Amino acid sequence: MRTLTSSLALPLFLALTISAADFSAGLSAYQKKDYAAAVKEWRPLAEKGDAPSQFNLGLMYVDGLGVPQDYNQARNWFERSAQQDYAKAQLNLGAMYASGKGVKRDYIQAYKWLNVCAAKGEQKCVAQRDLVAAKLKPKQLVAAQRLSSEFTPKQEPGKSDPDNPDK
Q: CA separation (Å) from 75 to 25, 30, 60, 117, 164?
């Protein structure tokens, strides 16, 4: 942000503050069990590329809270968030692939997402990854490890990057 002029810094700061407020409003609504209001707050943020909001919206679809239960929608939101390197979404996406809930069961994809998450030191991901690894044949495990090593996070277009305001 240091490279921004003061006239540009204030609107960016306000936009980030408003987004944080909307996320917090969604969290507050969720805690009050007003799930429809939580979805209403998180959806616009998720559509703009906010990974935590995408993850939370995915959870809402898994549980059918404030929206009809829809595992396909949950997978879509988890995947968007996971692609942006959000560990919780990677764990849930890996679990979906491992269980076949909302997607065709795919242990290679499950391992990929769980291994990407495990590389961050997330112990839940490590444990789940190791369970999935036991279901893979040696060649499948090599393929899954290759996929996870090739993973590169992708920021969604339109999502502001506070570390690089030129993006």
A: 24, 20, 11, 16, 29
Output the CA torsion sign for 125, 32, 68, 53. Answer: negative
- Taking only Cα atoms into account, the Rg of the chain, rounded to an integer number of angstroms, comes to 18
Alpha-carbon distance of 22 to 40, in angstroms, equals 9
* Element (DSSP H or E) covering residue 24: helix 6-31
Position 87, amino acid: A
d(CA 134, CA 165): 43
pTM: 0.83
Walk me through the domains of the chain, giving residue ranges and CATH numbers: 7-84 (1.25.40), 86-151 (no CATH)
DSSP assigned state of 143? H
Place of tokens 């690894």: 133
The 3 state secondary structure assigned to 43-63 is: HHHHHCCCHHHHHHHHHHHHH
C-alpha torsion sign, points 98, 153, 46, 56 = positive
Q: Is the pLDDT of residue 80 over 70?
A: yes
The residue ranking higher by pLDDT, 13 or 71, is 71
Q: Which residue has the tokens 């979906």?
A: 96
